[in-house]
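Hey, can you fold this one?
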Amino acid sequence: MKRSRIHVHLTLQDRQCLEKILNSRTTTRHDKLKAEVILLTDGGEYGPKLSNQDILAKLNISSRSLGRIKQTYSKNSSIEDLFCFTGLSDQSNSSCHVDSIPKLRKQVNSRYVEIDDSSNELFLIQNVKCRVILNNKEREYLEAIIKDGKQSNRKFNRAKILLLADEGIEGPSMIDKDIAEKLDVSLSTVARVRRLFITKENVEAVLNFNHENAGRLPKIDGTVQAALIAQACSKPPEGRCRWTLKLLADRLVELELVDNISPTAIATALKKTNLNLGSEKNG
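Sure. Predicted structure:
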C-alpha cells in the first residue's frame, strides 16, 4: 500500500510565526530545526518550492528526520499547538475527567497507595503505569524551565513530557503515544521520564538525571580482564581441544573473580582484545 504524502501549506501568518520562533534566542536547537524544516517544505503560495533532496542537503539531516517532522506538523492543529508548551493546563483532554482522578496518591516502591474519598481504607494497585501528578509549584517550575530557553534539549524534552503527562487537576493527562507524536520523541523516552518521576525525589532531579552515570559497575574490570586473557591463552582443560565461552565463564566463577557471568559477556570482552578462541596462535 502506497503511503500518502504529507503536504505542508502555510499561511503568511504561519510563516511569520515560524520565523519568529526560528530567530528567537530562547528557542531550542531541536525546535529551530523543526521550524526550519516546516518553512522549507512549505508548498503554499509563500513557500520556497524546494525539493526534499535540496532540503536534506541544506539542513544536513536524514530523510527519516524530515518525514518525522512533517508528520508531527500534520498531527497538530496549528503552529502554536506545535511549538507552545506553556499554559498546558488549558490543553486538558476532554476524555479524561478530573473526578476520576484520586485526590491523593502516595508512592510505595513505584506503586501507588490510593485513598478513596468515600473510605479511609488503603488499597494497593499493582502493575499500573507510572503516573505523573504535578502540584502547582512543580508545574510553574517546569514552565519556567521551558520559557527560559537556556537548557539542554534533553532537559527541555523532559520538562515538556512531564507537563503533558500530568494527571493532576489542571493537567492535560495525555497518553504516551500522543506525547511522543507531539514532541517527536520515542515512546521509550516518555516511559523513562515517567519512571524517573516516580523514583526521584523531585522534578529537578528528574530533569538533571544522567543515565550515563547510572547503572551497575561492569563485571569485567581490569583484574578480571587480565585473568580472562590469561585463561584464554592457557592450555584448555583435559579432554578439551580449546577453551569455549562457557568454560571460560565457569572458570572465572571457580576462581571467585565474579559471582556469575554469561558467555555473551565473555565474548564481548574477548572481542575487545581481538582474541580468537579458535586460533592456534593464542598462547
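The radius of gyration is 27 Å. Let me know if you want another pass with a different chain boundary.
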